[in-house]
Structures are given as structure tokens and as C-alpha cells.
Amino acid sequence: MNRSPTARISGLGIAVPDRVVTNAEFEQTLDTTDEWIVERTGIRERRIAGPETSLASLCETASRNALRMAGVEPGSVDAIILGTVSPDRRLPSTACDLQARLGAANALAFDIVAACPGFVYALTIAESLVTSGQARTVLALGAEKLSTITDTTDRSTAILFGDGAGAAVVQAAAGDGRGILSSVLGSDGTLADLLYIPGGGANDPVSQKVVDERSHFIRMAGREVFKSAVLAMARACDQALAKAGVTAEDLDLLVPHQANIRIIEATAKHAGVPMSKVMVNVDRYGNTSAASIPLALAQALDEGRLKPGMLIMLVTFGAGFTWGATVVRW
Predict the structure, then answer these.
(1) Of 29, 42, 47, 170, which one has the greatest count of Cβ atoms within 10 A?
(2) 1 found inside a domain
(3) Is residue 28 part of a domain?
(4) How many domains does the chain have?
(5) Does 126 share its domain with 139?
């Protein structure tokens, strides 16, 4: 390998709402079927949070689980970085609300808006803070309550999204070769209008017009997003592998963003990774945007597919457009 890691993931935790929504529920309200949804997306069910469950509460559960795994107390956390496009409120950041809930009195806290790559972006920023000496212990999170920004009357998006949260504790590498080996991030704002929320921001503030037009919900040009996602993730995989000084054949597990089974399969093919080495749980959670990769990592751990010393790659793509890939020796 070309470099030794300077930071590692020492703890991982997740949280999902209790309510499971199957495809059968959409058959009652939309012109769709379970068979149609599974064939085109691979999704069978997703978790949906009720109004009593805030994003901050999901983040708190995920963070406490991650801190427990790492053996770290909240007071030792120096920074909290939360990737989300569905914060509890516009001001202050949900990361600050999380800091208060955890009692992490010594931590700086901020949200980042990077859509589906939010966790990988947060992880990369956390690695940089640790490597530069600005922080010793960082909580990097990807979390979403996408049900609040999804139009339940739009068949093209309503079936896709779910809610959840994932957190990772990032600390200095221990010198055993385990940790973050490389990260590649990218963006292309010229394609923003293929996946976006048109209303509700400063250009078109919340109003009766915005509500009537339902423009405060996600809109997506699915076919065009698919093409861009596969190309960008394939390129990011190549760059991250080269930067880490490894090859696709060296990987033990590929953990892609769980957007759509067809995107996952196409990305794996382009990356040269057999599906037997790809973590897939889009059937269980749907597309949870920034939470998707930590949810997949946690399931891989639970199932024994992710063990110490394994070489893995995380790869993701989302609105912006944004994308990223990270190679990790677990």
C-alpha cells in the first residue's frame, strides 16, 4: 500500500424507526405493485419515522451505540459532523441539537449538506481533523428523515426512501495498518436540477404556493440520475483504489450507497467486484440517503461479513451531484 492510515473508525452505531412500511402499503395508494417495485429497485420495505421521532433522537441513539463500541464518553468528543438533507429545523443545526442531547460539552458541531454521500463526506472531514491534530475524537454521522421531504403521491419517489441514522467514531490510527487508506470526493453542480427540492429555500421561501405546488418535496429525473450515478461511482472507485495502492481484487467487501439494486449491480460490474463481495440491504431499508452506508456496514458486522483486517470500499452518489469513495482497512 502507498500509505499508512492516520485515522480509523473505532466505533459504529445505527438507529432506525420501529415502523416497517412494506410495498403492499403503496399498492393501496399508488398505481404500483410489490412486483414492480422489487423488479426495478430491489426494495421490499423501509423504515418510516413518526412525528414523535426526531432526527436528533435517531442520531443520539446511533451515536451512543458508536461511542459504546469505541469505549468513549461523550465528554471526550471534540467534533460532531452530521451529513443530512432533512434536519429537524433550519436553525440551529441538528448536529448542535445532538451535541446537547449527548452532553458532549467539548465538541464543535455542524451539519453538512452533501445528500447521499453525506456520511462519506463527514467521514473524510473527520479524518482530516484527526490527522491535522485539530481533534482527537470525532463523531461522523449520516442521518435522514426523508419521509418528511418525500411526496407520497409521486410514484417515482415515494417508494424509494426511508429513514435512519448511522454514526462512526473516528480516532487516530493505532499503527496496525487498520484505518482509512484513501478518500475521493467530487461534485458537479451543473446537473443539480436532475435531483433537487425546488421550493422552501431562500429563493422560493415556504408559502401557500410552495405547499400547493408540493415543491418542498424531492423531485428526480430517475433515468438521468441512474446514468450519472453509475459513471461517477465507477470513476470514484477507480480513483480511491489507486490512491490507496490496492486493486479491486484485493477487496473483501464493497459497501455501496443503497439507492437501487440496478445501480448497485452496475457499479459493482464497473468496479470489477463480484456481487458475492457486495453488501446489499436496499431490500430492508430502501434509500436512506446519508444513512445508507453506515446501515449497510452495521448489518455486515452483525452478519459476520465484516471482520477486523478486511479491506473494504465505501462508494456513494447523490444530489448535487456529489459522490465519493473511501477505502478502509477495517
Answers:
(1) 170
(2) no
(3) yes
(4) 2
(5) yes
**Identity of residue 43:** I
Nearest to 170 by CA among 80, 57, 39: 80
Pairing of strands 219-220, 79-83: unpaired
Q: Are residues 298 and 312 in the same domain?
A: yes
DSSP 63-95: HHHHHHHHT--GGG--EEEEE-SS-S-SSS-HH
Structural domain for 85, as ranges: 7-175
In a domain, 2, yes or no: no
Q: Is 300 left (phi over 0), alpha (psi -120 to 50) or beta?
A: alpha
User: Which of 139, 163, 140 is CA-nearest to residue 150?
Assistant: 163
Residue 148 belongs to some domain of the structure: yes
Least confident of 2-6, 131-135, 144-148, 224-228: 2-6
Output the CA torsion sign for 11, 17, 20, 26.
negative
pLDDT tens digits along 147-159 = 999 999 999 999 9
CATH of the domain at 142: 3.40.47.10
Rg of the chain on CA atoms, in Å: 19
Residue 294 Cα distances to 15, 116, 273, angstroms: 10, 11, 20
Residues carrying an active site annotation: 116, 257, 287
Q: For the chain, how many residues are written?
A: 330
